[in-house]
Structures are given as C-alpha cells and as structure tokens.
Amino acid sequence: MQACPECGAGAPLDAHFCPQCRKILPLGRRTADYFAFLGLPRKLNLDAADLEQRFRTLSRQFHPDYFYNATPAERRASLERSSCLNDAYRTLKNPIARVEYLLGLEGLAAKSPEEASHHVPPALLEEVFALNEELDEVRELRASGAPADQWKGRLERARQPIDAKRAAHEAQLQERSARWDALVEAGASDSERRDVLNGLRDRVMERNYINNLLAGIERELAR
Fold this sequence. Notes:
Number of domains: 2
Number of helices: 8
Largest sheet: 2 strands, antiparallel
Distance between the termini: 58 Å
Strand content: under 5%
Helix content: 55-70%
Structural class: mainly alpha
Number of strands: 2
Radius of gyration: 24 Å
C-alpha cells in the first residue's frame, strides 16, 4: 500500500489516483513494474490493440495539460507518470524487449548484445566455426582482387544457415513465451517458472549472438 500525500488514505501500489480524494499519486522512488503500471499480468503474449488502448487512456489521464492549475506536487506527479507510461509502452509493445524486461524483473536479465558477442553459445559453435572459416577465405579472395560477385556469393550462402538458426530461435522464443503464459495462468510454482525463464534467457542470449553474426556478414558485404 501507499499513502496519498493529499488526504492520507491508503491506495494500492499500482493505483494511479487516490481512491478516496481522486488526486493523482506520486510515482515515488520505487521502480515501477511496467506490466502492473498498465494493469497487465506478467505475460508475454499481449493483445496489441488492448495495449494501445490502455496507453491512450492513461495518456489522457496523466496529460500535464489537465494539471495546469493543480498544485506543484500534482503537476510533478503527472509528468512522472507520463514519462513512465511512455517507457512502459515502448518496452512492452516490442516482443523481444518485453521478454528482456520480464527477465530483468525476475532477476535473470540477459546479457547485452555487446557482452553476449564475446561468449559463443554452445548451441551455435558449429555455425560460428564454419562462418569464421568462410569469412577468412572471403577476405583472402577480396585481398587477391577476386571479382565481387565471387566472394559476395559465398557470403550470401554463408548467411543461410545463420538465418535458419535465427528463424528456429524465433520459434523457440514464441513456444517458451506461450509456456510462460500458461504457467502464469495456472499459478505454477517458482521452480517451474524459473525453468522456463532460464530457457528464455538462453534463447535471448543466442538471438543476440546470431544478430551480431548477421551484422558482421552485412559489414563484409558492404565493403
């Protein structure tokens, strides 16, 4: 519970307005849970239209124009909540950002793409080894003055298994996301939920690494 600074009444932590005096509540120092902020469960498959509607409704309620003649505390609260709402919407409308945010909430934040690039995930060792060999040969061809069509064609072929791996990971992320949502609905135990979260974290790390590999191929093609 939180206390309304205006009337002292108690309000739920995820309330935006005091249920007693209807004044807007300050966001406070606590870190907002974006799901709770938007009145959503911690699920990964969200209805895009519903998310949009919640965002627009709260945008109107928090808009600073409505608090032009309010107290300084209320004006500050409207700005804080408007800013938090924009961050929440931007994060939750993107499926991958949504997964990464959930992992952070649950204490299993995935490594950043930059950090992940230094650690080859075991599931990608074979593809990474083959790609590195191909890149070395392509660089030798380019240095020897070989026609661009020759080495660019090899790069395009080299990216095909990486693209296939990315597609497989997208499917795995969707499957694990659906499993997470089912566990949330069923009120599953922490251990069951943690197993799925660990799997999601691995998939996100591998996805980041795959994207780095594809970006590396694009850089070679652009040379």
